[in-house]
Amino acid sequence: MTQILSNENQYPGQPCVVALGTFDGVHLGHQALIGEAVREAGRRHLPSVVWTFSTHPMTVFAPQRVPRQLETLEEKIASLRETGVDVVILRPFTREFADLTPQAFLSLMEATLHPRMVVAGFNYTFGKKGAGTAQLLSQAAAQHGFETLIVPAVQLGGEAVSSTRIRDAIREGDMESARMLMGRPYALGGAVVHGKHLASLLGFPTANLDFPREKEVPRFGVYAALAELEGKTYPAVVNIGVHPTVPGDGVTVEAALMGYDGGDFYGKMLTLRLLQHLRREEKFASLSELAAQIRLDRERAMRWIHKNCPPDGRKENG
């Protein structure tokens, strides 16, 4: 069981192998880096520790420029647990922490975590204004009593896997690329709330999701998805957008769960794993045309999921 700490001072001080990074989205590159730390820790019979942040560093420097999240903090914790790491330290990124010199950063890590090995990405920076680099980390290792392992970029499709690349894919509605880069489908989750009940009037009751507004929003349109509700997984068709046929207020995420017969959705926690963009959002001339299109969307989503998803509900990478 992975232990979650909110500050490096909570760590008991046992020598360990440390993985450093922001780990925004815990994508394939992050998983590879943390995997190296977990393997090195196992080889040395030491605990593996991820030292990262509970808040994005840009919240200190330019809050208006904080990128939309790929994962909420709860989702990030779940993804980090899946790596098999022993301890995750999720410290807030504060002005005081940002102002540490590279030397002060290294001294803090040495005093609190006592690392025997430090694993970081090739482009990792630390200390005030990012003055510390992976090269400096390696050069300072002997002085601070640890070895280093600098991990190169993970390549997919001839390009480095990155959080920026994932965000671009999501904004384009390219959920296949997002899934491959993250190693899992991109997800939106939250409580089911009341909407306009338009779909119910058309004979297609849907769950209206109160999703975290800080998360990256996919391109408007209709998606095939898997919906997780009360421990069960259902094929779903999801509409993301502004309802141009019957306009409302702001962006909505609505899901029709196929095969669900559990009654009222409201107040229940729902997670939507978006698999495939089926079509763009459109304005229809009438509600009857909209209803006909919804029927087609449901059929197309079911065909896609049946063809592409294994019994456990997740399409394999590769």
Strand-helix topology:
Layout: E1 3-5, E2 16-20, H1 28-44, E3 48-53, H2 58-61, H3 73-82, E4 87-91, H4 95-98, H5 102-113, E5 115-121, E6 125-126, E7 132-133, H6 134-144, E8 147-151, E9 155-156, E10 159-160, H7 163-171, H8 175-182, E11 186-193, H9 198-201, E12 207-210, E13 221-229, E14 232-241, E15 252-257, E16 269-280, H10 287-308
Parallel strand pairs: 1-4, 2-3, 2-5, 3-4, 5-8
Antiparallel strand pairs: 6-7, 9-10, 11-12, 11-16, 12-15, 13-14, 13-16, 14-15
Helix pairs in contact: 7-8
**First-residue to last-residue Cα separation:** 29 Å
What share of the residues does DSSP label as strand, in percent?
A: 25-35%
- Beta-strand segment tally: 16
User: What is the CATH superfamily classification of the largest domain?
Assistant: HUPs
- Average predicted confidence as pLDDT: 91
Task: Provide the CATH architecture of the largest domain.
Answer: 3-Layer(aba) Sandwich
Shape: elongated
| Weakly predicted, low-confidence segments | 312-318
- Number of spatially distinct domains: 2
Features:
single chain; 318 residues; alpha/beta; Rossmann fold; Elongation Factor Tu (Ef-tu), domain 3; 2 domains; six-stranded parallel β-sheet; six-stranded antiparallel β-barrel; 32% helix; elongated
Description of the structure:
This protein is an alpha/beta fold and 318 residues long. The chain folds into two domains: 3-156, Rossmann fold, CATH 3.40.50; 186-308, Elongation Factor Tu (Ef-tu), domain 3 (Beta Barrel). Helices cover 32% and strands 28% of the residues. The protein has ten helices and 16 strands. The protein has helices at residues 28-44, 58-61, 73-82, 95-98, 102-113, 134-144, 163-171, 175-182, 198-201, 287-308, and strands at residues 3-5, 16-20, 48-53, 87-91, 115-121, 125-126, 132-133, 147-151, 155-156, 159-160, 186-193, 207-210, 221-229, 232-241, 252-257, 269-280. The strands form four sheets. Strands 1-4-3-2-5-8 form a six-stranded parallel β-sheet, sandwiched between helices. It has a six-stranded antiparallel barrel with strand order 11-12-15-14-13-16. Strands 6-7 form a two-stranded antiparallel sheet. Helix 7 (163-171) runs antiparallel to helix 8 (175-182). The protein is elongated, with a radius of gyration of 22 Å.
